[in-house]
Design a protein that fits this description.
The chain is 36% helix and 28% strand. The chain has eight helices and ten strands.
Length: 232
């Protein structure tokens, strides 16, 4: 399968979603917010996601978390392969930054059936859970209940993330994921979406004007102005 590099991610994903998702298309509003927020992150792994479109909704999950067993992301990604016969369009998303207000990056199509099995078989067990607050972090054992309302000296609770027993092994696993995607041949996102929709996207008016050969203007006959000067 081809990869699509330095594209407008939100525009491309929305069009893919519209070609496949018949119900709960508003799920993509959440995806849009997630990816726009991720584009501002400094850490590279916070800009890598797995995205899926189903007939009834979408999911956008941080890739790192998907490879940790018992995490919400892992369970969600694998659920549809284990419990559903729904056709899934799946992609790895890599955000490279913002350009003219657009979230830019690379998109890698995935064979969902093979990929979910790969995730299921290669994921690492969760050892601890990191609780992230406005002004600090706390660590607790995996499986313990999380109490976001509990008062702490670290301020407002923001999120939690699972941490594997062997973080270095997870880093190696994610490196291999990136390496295998880098080997994919470059392709055209427009042709990819055309195959999904069966429709060709019309070029913009501006691009149509650029493509048209410049027409020579007919020569106007000279006329006289009020002051009797010749005008052309």
């Amino acid at each position: 399968m081809p990869k699509f590099e330095q594209i407008d991610l939100l525009d491309s994903l929305e069009r893919i979603m519209q070609s496949h998702t018949k119900h709960y298309q508003s799920d993509f509003d959440i995806d849009r917010e997630i990816l726009t927020d991720a584009a501002q992150k400094a850490v590279a792994e916070d800009r890598r996601y797995l995205w899926m479109a189903r007939s009834s909704g979408t999911w956008c999950l941080r890739e790192r978390d998907t490879f940790i067993k018992d995490s919400r992301e892992h369970n969600t990604w694998c659920f549809y392969g284990e419990q559903s016969s729904d056709k899934i369009l799946a992609y790895a998303v890599e955000i490279t930054g913002m350009e003219n207000g657009k979230v830019m990056g690379n998109l890698y199509p995935l064979d969902y059936e093979k990929h979910f099995q790969h995730v299921r078989d290669s994921s690492l067990p969760s050892g601890t859970v990191k609780l992230v607050y406005e002004h600090g972090e706390q660590i607790q054992k995996a499986g313990q209940p999380i109490h976001p309302e509990k008062e702490t000296p670290f301020g407002k609770f923001l999120r939690f993330e699972n941490v594997p027993n062997d973080p270095e092994k997870l880093d190696s696993l994610l490196y291999e994921e990136r390496r295998s995607r880098a080997a994919m041949r470059p392709g055209s996102i427009e042709k990819h979406i055309e195959r999904l929709t069966g429709r060709t996207r019309k070029p913009s008016i501006r691009s149509q004007l650029k493509a048209e050969p410049e027409k020579k203007q007919p020569v106007k006959p000279a006329t006289r102005s009020k002051n009797n000067d010749l005008e052309v």
